[in-house]
Every structure is written in structure tokens, then in C-alpha cells.
């Protein structure tokens, strides 16, 4: 599944803009998976495994 990773968010303080707000706004224009990245967030890269 395609993924949109949001990084380097401004403002980055979650008390100013919660992650749910970033997620909701991005999801309006993107139908794939949305990930709101934070420090040390890791996502796999490459082709998905088909078992």
C-alpha cells in the first residue's frame, strides 16, 4: 500500500497542532496510508513481501 510520511512539521509542538490534525488534513487529499513522523520513527522501504 502506498504511504505518505509527514516529516519536519511546523509547528512541531503537539500541544499546538496535534498529530490527529496533521493526519486528518493529509487524509483529505491522499487515499493511501498516512504516517505522522516523530523523532526516530522508522518505516520499511522497498517492495512489499507477498507470502
Topology:
Elements: E1 3-6, H1 19-29, E2 33-36
Parallel strand pairs: 1-2
Structure description:
With 51 residues, the protein is α+β, with helices and mostly antiparallel strands. It has one helix and two strands; from the N terminus they run E-H-E. The chain has one helix at residues 19-29; strands at 3-6, 33-36. Strands 1-2 form a two-stranded parallel ribbon. Helix 1 links the parallel strand 1 (3-6) and strand 2 (33-36).
Question: How would you describe this structure in keywords?
Answer:
alpha+beta, two-stranded parallel sheet, 51 residues
What is the makeup of the main sheet? 2 strands, parallel
Percent of residues in beta strands?
Answer: 15-25%
Structural class: alpha+beta
Strands in their spatial order, largest beta sheet: 1-2
Categorize the overall geometry: flat
Oligomerization state: single chain
Q: Roughly what percent helix?
A: 10-25%
Sequence stretches where pLDDT stays below 50 over 5 or more residues: none
| Average of pLDDT | 89
DSSP summary: helix tally: 1
Order of helices and strands: EHE
Distance between the termini: 15 Å
Whole-angstrom Rg: 13 Å
Using DSSP, what is the number of strands? 2
Briefly characterize the structure.
The protein is built from one helix and two strands. With 51 residues, the chain is an alpha+beta fold. The two termini are 15 Å apart.
